[in-house]
Amino acid sequence: MAAPQIVWFRNDLRLADQAAVRAAAAAGRVVAVFVLDDETPGTWRVGAAQRWWLHYSLAALAKDLDAMGGALVLRRGGPARELAAVAKAIGATTVHALHHYEPWAGAQEAAVAAVLDLQLHDGAYLKVPGTTTSGSGTQYRIFTPFWNALQQSMPPGTPEPAPMIRFADAPDGDALDDWKLLPTDPDWSNGFDVWTPGEAGAHAALATFADVAAEYDDGRNFPAKPLTSRMSPHLHHGEIGPAQVWHAVAGRGAGPESYRREIGWRDFGINIVRQFPDLGDAPNRPAFDSFPFRDDPEGLRAWQRGQTGYPIVDAGMRQLWTIGWMHNRVRMIVASFLTKHLLIDWRSGERWFWDCLVDADYGNNSLGWQWIMGSGVDSSPFNRIFTPVGQSAQFDGAGAYIREWVPELAKLPADAIHAPWEATPMVLKAAGVALGTTYPHPIVGHAEARARALGAYASIRA
What are phi and psi of 72, to 5 degrees? Predict the structure, then answer.
């Protein structure tokens, strides 16, 4: 009888269209293992919001495996040590896993490969990272030519259903509750009930989005409209694969074409990570090493709490804290505000997002912050400084998004809600708004902040 095969689950918590599962099932009896790694040097410890998601996603995967007659073995520690212990207990020598490309993932894989036969499979991205190159074989650093080249290899292969799996007897593992991934004191996750982690939840979310995907191209910039996919946490945790998403929105017009570009951006992000493994820690453009950031703990705290006095910024930050997610248009606005209005180091915002986002992907998160800062190889110019009031009026004209997330301003009329400090005392009183008491004054003026930011930028260009 063939030796049991280990499937090492990571950020690929699904059974369908999962090449490692399929290969292991074809080779023999299977033992499924997930290792929570907080030990590998250089690993970005999983953030608090991701830990909430991970708890429920693992529970869902365990339930799916149980329904097939198997179990999910949970271990905590270094993957090489824990997988070797499982292998010894069941008489296995081979581990199957999807290949991941974050800098710490390579270290994990090398350590496992040193003690076991590690079989790596592709399937976390539309195309194997590093294989979308120019005619001369050069790696792309600008998205548009990367996207144009990637499309030449599309569509991705037809997604495979979950295979029939024969399970081997599983060794003991940890109890999920003992990992204490969920917040307790205080429990800040009450708003997270808008999410359904797990493979079934991912497919339900995709079906919901597919019904409105035709409107995505026009509607994605308006945060009050439910026209974004909200698939990012499901994709990040691998509860659904990018090929599954690609095919699900086929034939639905211009909206899905625009959405597919966003899936391509995810591929682009990991390709940049392969070229710049320290993307989350160091600017791609050396000039930004000497950027004169301000040390402003009070400003950072006001931004984190959604108390900047700019309603669109505060709405986004409160949405982030409440549900662990923020509309992409608003992510750009709040990131620009932190780095340019407040001149606070982009890495402070990046780390806050990493801890608060249920979809905090290393490539996407780091790339997004460097794009806003202007320090990335493909980025917006630093001197493109978002005007919070203008962005708010353009993309949340009636103020519906602000009213949802900044309820103390809900009674303000549309012509006052974007800049309440400009409203007349009569309008403020009628809406029950007392600036400085029920809602803060702006912590910095836009004109002043813009001038200061441009001056700081000029200092590194001299």
Answer: -110, 120
Q: Could you tell me which of 386, 254, 245, 246 has the C-alpha nearest to residue 329?
A: 386
Count other Cβ atoms within 10 Å, centred on residue 177.
10
Q: Are 382 and 452 in contact (CB under 8 A)?
A: no
* DSSP letter for each residue of 368-417: HHHHHHT-SSS---TT----HHHHHHHHSTT-HHHHHH-GGGTTS-HHHH
H-helix or E-strand spanning residue 6: strand 5-9
CATH architecture of 125-157+199-277: Alpha Horseshoe (1.25)
User: Which is nearest to 123 in space by CA: 104, 152, 97, 150?
Assistant: 97
5-123, CATH topology level: Rossmann fold (3.40.50)
Q: Do 80 and 108 form a contact (C-beta atoms < 8 A)?
A: yes
Q: What is the pLDDT of residues 311-322, one digit of tens each?
A: 999 999 999 999
Q: What are the boundaries of each domain within the chain?
A: 5-123, 125-157+199-277, 291-453
The ranges of the chain with pLDDT < 70 are 1, 462
Angle between helices 346-356 and 48-67 (to 10 degrees): 30
The whole-angstrom separation of Cα 362 and Cα 398 is 34
CB 178 within 8 A of CB 189: no
User: Residue 20: is it exposed, middle or buried by C-beta count within 10 angstroms (0-12/13-18/19+)?
Assistant: buried
The confidence score (pLDDT) of residue 1 equals 63
DSSP H or E segment with residue 34: strand 30-36
Per-residue pLDDT, 100:
97
In the block, tokens 């074809």 appear at 26
Amino acid 185: pLDDT: 87
* Superfamily for the 291-453 domain: DNA Cyclobutane Dipyrimidine Photolyase, subunit A, domain 3 (1.10.579.10)
Listed in sequence order, the DSSP H helices in 142-198 are 143-151
Q: How far is CA 283 from the centre of its chain?
A: 19
Q: What is the pTM of this model?
A: 0.97
Is 200 strand, coil or helix? Answer: helix
How do residues 361-417 score in pLDDT, each as one tens digit?
999 999 999 999 999 999 999 999 999 999 999 999 999 999 999 999 999 999 999
Strands (E), 37-128: 72-76, 94-98, 117-121
> Residue 408 phi/psi, 5° resolution?
-70, -15
Give the dihedral of Cα atoms 199, 201, 205, 208; nearest 10 deg: 120
Calpha distance 139→272 (Å, rounded): 9
pLDDT at 250: 83
